[in-house]
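**Backbone geometry record:**
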Amino acid sequence: MEGAKVPADDLDEESSAWLRRLGAAGGELRAAECELHARLVRIALAEVRRRAPGTPVVGQELDDVAHQAADDAMVAILAKLADFRGESRFITWAYRFVVLEVSAKLGRHYWRHAPVALDAGQWERLPDRFGIDPARQAEAAGVLAEVRRVVEEELTAHQRRVFVAVVVDQVPRDALVAELGLRKNAIYQVVFDARRKIRRALVAKGYLEEPGRSGDE
């Protein structure tokens, strides 16, 4: 049956050990919780540093976000141990919680301190988000210039903020829903409209083909 738990005997040895230790009591439980929390802190620190170029959060505040994310992920993991289905290793399943917490927390910081303009690294990531063929390196500068023009001149302030958060910084939609009070389909529509404006401009400049056209036409 879809979503059914994998029998304990079928779990990998490490996952079985985690479940056993986290289901124990006394010193064994405390040791397991300390070890798990330490791992979550490490992955949270690595994740916030990976995302550092695209967020206004820096220094000690960035480390604080990582520790908060690890703490909140720990609470969620312990509350949902019974939901672990064994479809992946336990530690992989647990890491997803902390990555989601990092995304949500950095997303909230982003909306409180949204940058006025994209930095160089953000601009460089934009062509990939639109499926521009990386082999067309000679056109990269032109593509970036046109995308930048559309984002700065044709998108509304609201479209620009949502577009950058979702497409460039890949902030989870759940984080935006919580911050903006919008429905997910409203966020989808904003991103869709922004992408359509940019794609239309790229088609007009010859960087993309018009939808429905093939190279044989």
